[in-house]
Each structure stands twice: as C-alpha cells, then as structure tokens.
Predict the structure.
Amino acid sequence: MPELPEVETIACHLRPALTGRVVAQVAIAWARTIDRPDVASFQSQIVGDRFVSVGRRGKYLLFGLESGRVLLVHLRMSGRFDLRPGGQPPVNEPHTRASFQLDDGAWVDFIDPRKFGRFYLVDDADDLLHGLGIEPLSPDFTASWLQDHLSEHRGEIKRLLLDQNFIAGLGNIYVSESLWHARIHPARSAASLTPPESRRLHTAIVQVLRSAVADGGTSLNDRQYVYPNRDLGGHQPHLMVYDRSGDACPRCGYAVERTVQGQRSTYFCPVCQPAP
Ligand SMILES: [Zn+2]
C-alpha cells in the first residue's frame, strides 16, 4: 500500500502535468471508484474545471480545482496513476477504473487491480481530513510532541504508529523500518517508551521518511507502486528489515524475523529490538 513517500512522489510527478490544465473529458469504468458525489454528478462537475494545485495530506492526494472544489484520491491497496502526454496511444490495461483527458491532449488513467482506491470530489477537503493525525514531516512533529502523546497510549507501539488519526502517512513498511532504526520492539506498549527511546523513534521516523521521499518511494516485487511514467521507486535497497525475514540484520547479523500484528506483517530484529 502506498505510504507518505509514495503518495508524495506521485503528487510531484502529476503536479507539472496537471496544474493549469482543464479536464476535457472523463470516463469511469468502475463506478465504485467514485465515492462521492454519484458518477454522473462527478463527471458533470469536473469536466471543464481546471487543476490549480496538486498536494498531499497523509496518504491522500489533493487536487485543487479552480471552482474551489477539491478532488481527493486515496490509492488504498493498489491504486496508481498512469500519465500519457498527448499523442501517446492508450495502454491496454484491464484494471483502468477511470480516465481523464486534459485540454492539452494528455491522458491520466487511474489503474487499480484491487478496486479499493476511491475518489472524493468535495467542496471542503476538511470533510475527509479533519480527523487525520499530525504530518510527520511538518515542523509540528517534534520529539517532545511524540513523547507527550506516546504516554497517553497503552497499546502496542506499532499499531499506534499505523493509526492515521495519530500520525498521518505512516504504513507497514516505514513503521517496521522506523522501529528497527530506533531499536524498539513493535509489540512494546507505546506508554512504556523511555524518553531516550521516544527521541530515537522521532529521529528514525523523520529520517526514514525523508530518505524514502528522496528515493522516490519503495517499489516492492508486486510492482503495485510505480511512478505515473511507470518508473520504479528507488528505496528498495535501503530497506533494513521490511520483507527481509531470514536475512541478516544489517546492524547485528542475527536473522530478521517476521510476525503478525493486527493481521499485518511485522519485521524486526529480535536482538536489536528486544521483546518487552
Ligand atoms: Zn539486529
């Protein structure tokens, strides 16, 4: 599932192609991709409108429109965009759920094999975003913020970090990586972290995310995340534990282990990240 670095990278790639362009036509091949409004209203409202901004909040893509409306897109498990500048032939892609043609002739397709991705065309983005947690790459996310808020949560640290209403944008890959860097076992109670541990965790989250954004995100073997021009992200070689069970821990050499927490795989080093 795309996380903050992947969504940020997609926004950066789509921004120059979309900003200033008017939507010339829209085809919706899978109606449930459009969460709101209904498909007919979605088409009539967005055709003729102009993209004025492309941004991100948490794992949502935000497309600002000249009308004042905002198109929010959540990619969920497998959603991706495919961008074809004008004149390029259509791709024969059976999982295309929505296609936009821009006024310069370019096509932007939304491809989503698992069909969980959703589009929301709204007057006020806050309708969807109001409950989202702090942005981990914003200046508000400080070591003291994290320490103060961890103390309020007795549940497992990994599950808390996956909660989008606590920190927005983290997912399974970067939580596993951050906890390894911070040398914290994923099943520890959040409230049990000592001040040095919460400072290490803060540093790890920020550095892991910055590094992954700089690398253009992580394309796993399933290839569900690729850039809109179909290039791959570059962060894969920098993963220390994620999807590496049985490999030697890059810090101590012991075998990386995989466990399951809340139906999600967790990867950790049992030596560097001692069990509670
Ligand atoms: Zn280790």
Summary: The pocket of zinc ion is lined by residues 249, 251-252, 254, 269, 271-272 (CB under 6 Å). The longest helix spans residues 195-214. The chain has seven helices and eleven strands.
